[in-house]
């Protein structure tokens, strides 16, 4: 691969940068491509790779923002300004479509600059592919594969973190446990595929009912949990009522007569994880005893 020349002086008639040889820019000359590859291989974080790559691209053209769109989500460089005109490039490796790399710049990208960027993409492909594979492994380890919610192992970590913060900052939080009423009959009558559809719909209801500071988990089967920043029971009650209303309004769940029972408790800095869970589970048991399709606090 040929060396990448410094492109620094903008020519308005071309709308881009052209080679501009001065001592200032010679001293900032980019490393050889193999050096860039070595730097990109120092991290398996996709955002970190984009930061390294963006630093290199900035020596070639004016760059305000850089994003990467893939099936695993959206990633971007630190402090990416995405308000300017986007320039999109598809990234493929051995016939596999990795995603789209989007540059944001206040200047147009000429054919020369586009060609330079595409040369640099060859340095980016393998490190980026490896980072995506690593990200996928982490997702499989921490996420429920059916619903995309955090799994039980992540719940345990989140709960311990919440407790530690509660002890340090004396800030209470709530634990909510939920399961689906009449869910077994859906699997028995219509099969597990329909049951999976019900679980996914319920997971969507949960994620749409909470705030950005809260977190939802699936333990397995039809058992779910929500950790809520809540200095009093007020927030917890509002979220519980919102969830039950949306379940009752959902056509799919209503069709199969599926509702939800909820138990919740307010944690404090004096609690341990087992005590918190036992109280919330007791609230769930009370909701079942009360006829289901309701919420009870302990």
Cα separation of the termini = 67 Å
Determine Rg (CA atoms, Å). 26 Å
Give the CATH architecture of the largest domain. 2-Layer Sandwich
Order of helices and strands: EEHHHEEEEHHEHHEEHHEHE
CATH homologous superfamily annotation of the largest domain: Reverse transcriptase/Diguanylate cyclase domain
- Would you report the number of β strands? 11
- Specify the number of helices: 10
CATH class call of the largest domain: Alpha Beta
Largest sheet: 5 strands, mixed
Low-confidence stretches: 1-29
Indicate the proportion of strand residues. Answer: 15-25%
Helix content range of the residues, please?
40-55%
The global form is elongated
Content-based structural category: alpha+beta
Average pLDDT score? 86
**In CATH terms, what is the fold-level topology of the largest domain?**
Alpha-Beta Plaits
Q: How many domains comprise the coordinates? A: 2
Strand order in space, largest sheet: 8-9-7-10-11
EC number: 2.7.7.65
InterPro entries: Diguanylate_Cyclase, GGDEF_dom, Nucleotide_cyclase, Rev_trsase/Diguanyl_cyclase
Domain GGDEF: 171-298
Pfam families: GGDEF
